[in-house]
## 1
Amino acid sequence: MSRIGYRRLVAVALVTGIGLTGAACSNSKKDDSGSKTSAASAGTPLDPKTKVTISADCEPPTTEKAQRSEWIADVAAFHKLYPNVTVKSKDAYPCEDPAKFTAQLQAGTETNTFYTYYTDLQQVLDSGQAADISDYVNAKTVPNLASIDPSVLNVLKDGGKLYGLPTSNYKMGLIYNRKIFKEAGLDPNSPPTTWDEVRQDAKVISDKLGSKGISGYMDNSAGNQGGWHLVSEMNGVGVRAVSEDGTKATFNDPGTKQVLQTLHDMRWTDKSMPATPGLVWGDVQKAMGTGKIGMYVGAPDDVTTEVQQYHANYDDLGMGPIPGGKIALMGGNDYMFKKSDSPDQIKAGIAWINFEFLTVSKGQFNYPRKKADGLPVGLPEPFFFTGTAQDQDNQGKAASATIPVDNFKAYSGVDVPVLAEPPNAQKVYTVLDTVMSGVLTNKNADLDKLLSTATDQVNQLLAASS
Amino acid sequence: MAATTVPENTTKRHAGRQAGPDRRATGRGPSRKVAANLQAYGFLVGAVLCFLAFSWYPMVREFIMSFQEKKRGVTSWVGMKNLDRVYHDPFFWTAWKNTAEYTGYALVIGFALPFFVAIILNELRHAQAYLRILVYLPVMLPPVAGGLLFKYFYDPDYGLFDHILKTLHLPQSQWLDSSHTAMISVVLAATWMSMGSATLIYLAALQNIPGELYEAADLDGAGLWSKIWHVTIPQTRMVLSLMLLLQIVATMQEFTNVFVLAGGNGPENSTMTVVYMIYQYGFRYNNLGSAAALGLFLLLVLIAFSGVYTRLSRNSDQDG
């Protein structure tokens, strides 16, 4: 090609490139104004005559036939109440894949009413995708609002403004295999409540059943799962991972060291933990579901995974409180509303979430229907209702229980104060992965050094995030 | 005769000038050439647009993003803040050290092994085609499937490798579960999965070496290593040099294998590579500006390496 030809080509490429870049930049310059409506009209429930379409994600996938048919039936029932509202469902399993979710937020392609984890609030706000729903949510639009635990609603607030509605929550506890406990000669109705007891029971299990490839205890060490578990475990003995204002690491504490020492001794002295720690989500669940471990720290919904994916029996599984019993790490999920939603779309979204997730004996709380569909009823979550709503929910759950609820009495019967996940949770977990993997993969791990290095690193990350 | 004879090449040059149109005289040369090649340019448009949309534009965008930050939906220019943040990240140097370690292991194992396999294959008189397929077969396996397969093999409780070591009464290893062996385990798996392509390229280069050179070496009494060192390697130097460059650039961008096999970080962050750290910033911390800044660091390092390498190779060729 001649020189002139090159120049032309370069010019065209430059102009196109600059144009595209400019378009991309202008695209990312959305402002912070949010949905526009007056506070007075925002607070009124959706007018049934309003014609509006919303998309909502987390419809159960086709592989979960019963859950999916319940969802579809609920969408149809909602449509009868609001004939002019169309809910377009998008199925997903899991409901949120963090990497995909981040990409969706950047592109603004999430649904009008979208599923998030409690820990997602900051990233949704930074991405400029969350609508402020403070003016829309009141006793008229969400009749059970006063019954929702304020500590749960607080997780979804920032600067006093509400950005989401909770649909589930959990607190961490100790999941254990009752069948293995029985076989090892332990009392399946008295799960361990302290780390010393965890160690003793784990040793008994490994000593008696190790020849069958069964270990007493298992924990995670990578993929941020190790850090998450360590924070749960230090919370159990009363240690917070970071200060309340989220600026300093506070986990370098004798309590944390004691937990780590116990884990180290279980792994290397007692050999009551498998040689392979859990590396990613699903590893410990698989080990529990296939009857290879006696205990691990987890959340109640893991039990469903273990039964549905790995064919464990509800009869064989149980839960106890988090060892130490001082604080239980709380997590959960919620729905937020896209910032570009019209006021009517936000109202319709709130009406749908209220119908499906926040009304006692309806939607997710329709226990007789769940029982008829062969779905588990009786797991101790969610537990965000308080007062009368909580009593009604507990009664309804007990009346239709399909799983042995007594197996979870040791967990739900103890009132352990809950604590939300720390600010910048994922960064803290990344650093604490190192501590967990150090303890579980290095026999000569220096706990003091691991904790002091991790403290410096978390402080560095928190300072950089501010 | 010498005075009247026009050198042949000079005649051709003159003839060429006379035969072709005088561009300066007509001024229509380029457009005529464009018109003549219009069909070819048409075919190019698709590829150029693809590169523009999926390679060049993201690169420009990444460069811009590395100086921006998005807070509360508002994108603002933050100067060097993202570069400073990633540089002071407590895992910045860990990630570079791990990346260099991966690249080093990949050179020792992943670069040398396919070459020697290719030499062996080249020497075989029978079943060469079957063995070539056998060596290439793992390349056809999706990388994630291959990674999961090796993850199972490496399991210290149920895995194949420790089972074999145990049967042979050899000491067992923690493979992916120890910070001392995790990276080498990832490299071994990656080599198995990708060596087929390199082997075939080396094999093609080896088959182009004239047999006379080996016959001459035989006459000079050269042994096997002497022939490899003095005939095979010099004759395949161009291919080896190119493959070395490509391999280093590729291994510096390692992500899939550490992600699938070691959950990304690995024990005590022993497998956290620079690209995995970019992934963490982008998709776990939702900080695309810092992810882009780290990508910029990597880009600069790779450009610097490629430049130095190309310069050294050129000097070496000139010396040779």
Note: Chain A is about 45% helix and 15% strand.
## 2
Amino acid sequence: MTVVSLARAPDLTTSTVARRRSVANAAATAAMCVAFLVAMVPLVLIIGYLLARGGRVISWDFLSGNIPLPTAKGPGMGPAVVGTLVITGAAAVMAIPLGVFGAIYLNEFGRRSRLASVIRFMADVMTGVPSIVMGLFIYTIWVLRYGQSGLAGALALACLMLPVVIRTTEEMLRLVPTELRHGSVALGARTWRTVLTVVLPAALPGIVSGAMLAVARAAGETAPLLFTIGIVRERNASLSGPNTALSAQIFSNASQPFAGAIDRAWGAAFTLVLLVFLLTVVARMVAARFASESN
Amino acid sequence: MADHLDLTQEDRGAHLDTAFRLLALAAGVTVLAILGLIAWSTTHEAWPAFRVAGLHFLTSKHWVPNDPDGPGPATAQYGTFAFVYGTLVASTIALLLAVPVSIGIALFTTELAPRRLRRPITNLIDLLAAIPSVVYGLWGIAVLAPQAQGFYGDLHRWFRPVPGLNRLFGPDPNGRSLMTAGVILAIMITPIITSLTREVFTTVPRGEKDAALALGATRWEMIRAAVLPHSFGGMTGAVMLGLGRAMGETIAVALVIGSSPQVVANLFKPGDAMPAVIANQFGESGGTFRAALMGLGVALFAITIIINMSARLLVRRAEVRVRGAA
């Protein structure tokens, strides 16, 4: 048996880590912090500019008044606010029920079947289809026949929302304990009744939160609306006939050389971001409550 | 004993279940139907341009669109290479900027930040994703582009002696350029790459990380030995999804890229991109011109579908491997 010299026992304090290794560690740690700060710079800048340049323009007149000519100064985005609400609302009415039923198929019926896997995969792929392609698609199958309208824009937005609603809803349905379904079936309920009165209510907060996030994303979209709704300056609260939206107004005003138009673009951007953030925050609060309840 | 429950009565509700099942199935199949319809209807609409231009549609850089129904010479040319080039260059710049930052943020949130700060940090990054693309475009054209011009001039002076880079960071910078489009795209795809890589990093088994630390590794060594090798496939998928997003992004790019279809090495020059030119010119096009723009849409659809499919397969394989190990 060899005798280990106690005088040469290893020193386990951190200072023994070779200088090069500790420097590399410190550099990597610093780089991670810097990466986070770098990403915060544009966020702070954009929100700052929105508050400074958009907040200045916002007033009740701005939110309700008519849109003046690009050359004119002064407020007015009312028709765009109405258009955004009507078009996004109609898209939600089409996409959310369809998406929820699609998710019911995936989680309650299809499960591990080949068709369900294909639909699941293609829904994921569909979330990556560029939004302008959805605009071109609705243009070819709808606008060429029936002309530009709020409904055409809503169809394009619904195509964008559908896969998001399907996938988030399916995730939520999967979290519903199987025991609930077994209990319902054991009491004699049919599958449709089990799904509609037991499974869906259990998953409802999560579904609502996912749907709201999809609506928030759709409300900010511009590209699908460019060729589908046209661009008007008059208020149009119906789904038929050309319409306008906040995003479309920002796009057309942003490249104008007139100060009044640029101001209105910032005001519309402020309004749109406020709307999107509100939807996002409420959705997250609903989701957080759901998460704490299910734990 | 009273009337006993008759359990033999005919099953009257069965057809309701069948109807419900079919309804759900139809809703699910809608996804496939929409994707199929997109492919068929846009290709059908773009066919005249494909027939006129043939293979030159994607390889020629001569873009001389003319509405054959309108005035002007009938020698229209529909080469879209300049748009493909602009899309590739801007997306490459975006990836070069966004990938290191995103991986850094994902590591920061999963390995470095205190546990109670993780959720707020994640929410902050997700806010970047919630900002609509047209707002990025407005900020880009009104704030970033005018200020970037001077900075680009400085970059050009610094890099003038460096061969290679002095061609990319060339003279006469323009605020609305390939570079500005790349920077805006980088900001826009950072949240998606970050959130996907973060998901991947959280699947690294606790035991592997603890083992590395127990062997005396520093945090960075633990990340290199345990976290990164385990996450490589998932990270590749995340980066590809970011690439797909960048290539399809329309409105922000349309506002800041400068709308000038040219193939130049100088990144500070205006260019144009596939989705951007559709957004800018579709409204005033007609005939074969419109078909050509539709054809760009078809190409964009095909490219993004391929990228997304391979990326999803990579991410899924990473997930499956993790589940298999658990």
Note: The domain at 76-294 of chain A is CATH 1.10.3720.10 (MetI-like fold).
